[in-house]
Every structure is written in C-alpha cells, then in structure tokens.
Specification:
Shape: globular
Strand order of the largest sheet: 6-7-8-3-9-10
CATH architecture: 3-Layer(aba) Sandwich
Strand content: 25-35%
Number of domains: 1
Order of helices and strands: EEEHEEHEHHHEHEHEEHH
Bound molecules: adenosine-5'-triphosphate, magnesium ion
Radius of gyration: 18 Å
Number of helices: 9
Structural class: alpha/beta
Length: 244
C-alpha cells in the first residue's frame, strides 16, 4: 500500500537520503533501525512531505507522486491518510488533553465539535487517559503526554501511522506504559512504521525490520533474520554496539 522508490534528499550539499527503497503492505508493522544521523527521521518526514526529497516517487494506495513534479493535491491527500507521533510529543500547551485530540478532527477533517469530542474521548479512553481529559500538558507526565500524542494520531483514523522514536525522550520508568499502548495500536491491524532504538520491542511487534545506514536501506528482513542472523557486517556491528 505504501511504496517509496529511489528517494534522494540533500541538505545543502550534503546528501542525506541516497536512494531509499521501501515497500510496505497493508497491516505491516515495519520498524526502522539504524545509527544516529543516518536519515531515519528524514525518511519518515518525506512521507508527509515535511522533508522534501529532490527525486524519487511515493505511492500510497491510489495516490502516486513524483517528487520532481510535486502536486499540492497529492501532498494533501497523502497527509490525510497518514499521522505522525513525534519524539517530543508535539502537544499544544494551551489546550487540554481532550482539545489536543479534537483539534485535527475539527481543523483538518472539519468535523463538528460534538463529533470530535466523541471520537477524541474514545481514543483517549483507548490509551488509558479517559480520566485526564481536562488536564493541561503541564499537569501530565511524559508518558501521558505521549499517549495523548498517540490518541491524536489515531483519532483521524489514518491508513498509516508513523512513529518517530516515540519513547526516546521519556524517563526510563515511563517507557513501558507507552510501549504497551504502541503494541496495542500496532496489533490492531493499522499499517505502522516505527523508528526506534528499542530493539527488543521492535523484534516483538514487527513483521519486518529495515536497517538504514548511510542514507540507504542497508538490510531488511524478518526480525529473526535481522537480529539472529545479521549477515551484513554493518548491521552486525550496529547490533553489537546497541548490545542486542
Ligand atoms: N532540517 C535540516 N537541515 C539540515 N540538516 C538536517 C536537517 N534535518 C536533518 N539534518 C541532518 O540530516 C542527517 C539525518 O538526520 P535524521 O534526523 O534523519 O537522522 P536519524 O537517523 O533520525 O538520527 P537519530 O537516530 O539521531 O534520530 C543528520 O546529519 C542531520 O544533522
Ligand atoms: Mg531521528
């Protein structure tokens, strides 16, 4: 359902993505691992065109776009089908938990306030925040903030959910509650792309692991193939360094 073909992107004169190919089937849970600075976040951001590739193509369901001939309608259509969960939560500080989740429903999807409230309430219940609807972000833990971010992403009923290191800015004791929610979300059948350094977690939830290194997909396969039989030397070195 999602295909990225030969994606290239440079910042200034520095090539970051050097021809990335990625193909994701509906319902897949694909984890992207790899060294810091290798372009994992940039690749996710290409999907919703927050980062702008210089060339390559994207296919998402019936939408097809060539990055050398970008068209606004296609970008908009792709954005409506995807939702992103960020490392830094990206919740609005001046809105309650409930308002944060209602916001994209009203602003992007033009739903009525009543409908938005009903959907937001359901999604917040799902991530265990049903009792915190009227709290402001300053009154929440990092784990609760991230669960709010996940509820907001789910509320728009995306076809693909993109997680960018959703637990890496959390205190260790808060990581578990967020991973539990992500596990529940990814096992619900929604197509998921997850950038993570949580190797054991990636192994346990993923249908496929993609190893990115130096701006390309350097290896990919089942969790078993990647973690138990890393034939590729760079992958083996990376896993060693991560103590997997
Ligand atoms: N907006 C930008 N302008 C210039 N350079 C950027 C920009 N965004 C990212 N980069 C550079 O692009 C490279 C890839 O960054 P990216 O954030 O995609 O890496 P990453 O694989 O997600 O790393 P990490 O694991 O640390 O999150 C890095 O060298 C980074 O400094
Ligand atoms: Mg990153």
């Amino acid at each position: 359902m999602l295909e990225l073909n030969d994606i290239k992107l440079s910042y200034g004169n520095t090539p970051i993505l050097k021809g990335v190919n990625l193909s994701v089937k509906r319902g897949d849970v694909v984890s992207i691992i790899g060294p810091s600075g290798t372009g994992k976040t940039t690749l996710l951001r290409c999907i919703n065109y927050l980062a702008k590739p210089t060339s390559g193509t994207i296919v998402l369901d019936d939408i097809r776009m060539d990055y050398q001939a970008v068209n606004k309608a296609a970008v908009q259509a792709i954005r409506l089908k995807t939702a992103m969960v960020f490392q830094q939560f990206n919740v609005f500080r001046n809105m309650t938990v409930l308002e944060n989740v209602m916001d994209p429903l009203m602003v992007v999807q033009r739903k009525s306030k009543e409908e938005a409230r009903a959907i937001a309430g359901q999604e917040l219940e799902r991530v265990g925040l049903g009792a915190k609807l009227d709290r402001y972000p300053s009154q929440l833990s990092g784990g609760q903030l991230q669960r709010t971010g996940i509820a907001r992403a789910l509320a728009v009923k995306p076809d693909v959910i993109l997680f960018d290191e959703p637990t890496s800015s959390l205190d260790p004791e808060l990581v578990g509650e967020v991973l539990k929610v992500i596990k529940e979300v990814t096992s619900s059948g929604i197509t998921s792309l997850l950038v993570t350094h949580e190797m054991q977690f990636a192994r346990s939830i993923s249908s496929r692991i993609v190893f990115m290194d130096q701006g390309v997909v350097a290896a990919e396969g089942t969790p078993e193939a990647i973690f138990d039989n890393p034939s590729q030397p760079r992958l083996a070195r990376f896993l060693n360094a991560e103590h997997v």
